[in-house]
Design a protein that fits this description.
There is one protein chain. This protein has 291 residues and is of the alpha/beta class. The protein has a single domain, classed as Rossmann fold (3-Layer(aba) Sandwich). Strands 5-6-2-7-1-8-9-12 form an 8-stranded mixed β-sheet, sandwiched between helices. Helix 1 crosses helix 4, helix 2 packs across helix 10 and helix 4 runs parallel beside helix 5. The longest helix is centred in the N-terminal third of the chain and has 26 residues. The relative contact order is 0.16. The structure holds adenosine-5'-diphosphate. The site of adenosine-5'-diphosphate has 19 residues, from helix 2 and helix 8. Adenosine-5'-diphosphate binds next to helix 2 and helix 8.
Length: 291
């Protein structure tokens, strides 16, 4: 059937109306979440999801109510990192209930909608973001102190449109690694946060130096300090360095947050220090009392 100019205008008006309705629903659901933190990276593989899971667990260890939204459509790894593979979102009359994770964390992931980890998400761009938008409007988060949002890597349309559905973002954490090549993408990620009109909480340098599992000494395999340098250049806070630690991979594979399993390690201490800095940043923003 051929669409007339009139019918295509009506279709667009209808789509716009649905978009506005979805945004309103998301806004209402999110109104009980005190701080919404986007976790970004310029590219994949820098440890963005690992950092999201461990920062979330570190907040939860401090007694906060924490949620994670895994919006990384093509690589939803949060379920695996928290030992929740195969879990499914429950749907009831008020909406979609997050899966209960370790330390009472509430988790929502595209991964919970897929039949198995091996199945790739093959939706096309606009369909994908529309699905995410509808999906978000239906999630019953309840009251949360912190919601960490693991966005898809990169600074293209997809992470931008997903981030734009989430109103009132409190700030963004940008994850990078120490090599020179990643510095250009960090700049892009900072510009991306500015485009989103989200304050940059800071840059975090992951895989920064190697902790020897035998003697505990720190060896700088790659050059470290790149994250700190770029933070200075861009005039945004530097949150700290997380060392490379083979136990992070082991714990991730076992589905246990590293900060829970190895709280006395230097990497876990680095995560706790970063969480304290994030708290300070958010509480200074005119919100003095702790959540
Ligand atoms: P991204 O979300 O950026 O794609 P991931 O969080 O999936 O990256 O991490 C990529 C790989 O690097 C995973 O195997 C993870 O266990 C490992 N990894 C991340 N951070 C560290 C670290 N600090 N030390 C050791 N391995 C790490």
């Amino acid at each position: 059937m051929q669409s007339t100019p009139q019918s295509s205008l009506e279709a667009r008006q209808e789509a716009f109306k649905r978009f506005q309705e979805d945004l309103q629903k998301i806004r209402k659901r999110m109104s009980k979440v005190r701080f919404k933190i986007a976790v970004l990276s310029g590219k994949g593989g820098v440890g963005k999801s690992t950092v999201t899971a461990n920062l979330a667990a570190a907040f939860a260890m401090k007694g906060y109510q924490v949620g994670i939204l895994d919006a990384d459509i093509h690589g939803p790894t949060i379920p695996k990192l928290l030992g929740l593979q195969g879990a499914r979102l429950e749907v009831g009359p008020p909406g979609i209930f997050p899966v209960k994770g370790p330390l009472g964390m509430r988790i929502v992931s595209v991964g919970f909608l897929l039949p198995s980890e091996e199945v790739p998400v093959v939706w096309r761009g606009p369909l994908k973001t529309a699905a995410i938008r509808q999906f978000l409007g239906d999630v019953v988060w309840g009251s949360l102190d912190f919601l960490l949002i693991d966005l898809p890597p990169g600074t293209g349309d997809e992470p931008l449109s997903i981030a734009q559905f989430i109103p009132g973002m409190s700030g963004a954490i940008i994850v990078t690694i120490p090599s020179e090549v990643s510095q250009a993408v960090v700049k892009k990620a900072v510009i991306f946060a500015h485009e989103l009109k989200v304050p940059v909480i800071g840059i975090l340098e992951n895989m920064s130096g190697f902790i020897c599992p035998n003697c505990g000494a720190k060896i700088d395999i790659f050059k470290t300090g790149g994250g700190e340098k770029i933070a200075r250049e861009l005039n945004v806070p530097f949150l700290g360095k997380i060392p490379l630690d083979p136990r992070i991979v082991e714990d991730s594979d076992a589905g246990i947050p590293f900060v829970v399993k190895h709280p006395d390690s230097s990497a876990a201490k680095a995560f706790m220090d970063i969480v304290a800095k994030v708290e300070d940043f958010l509480l200074q923003g005119g919100k003095k009392e702790k959540p």
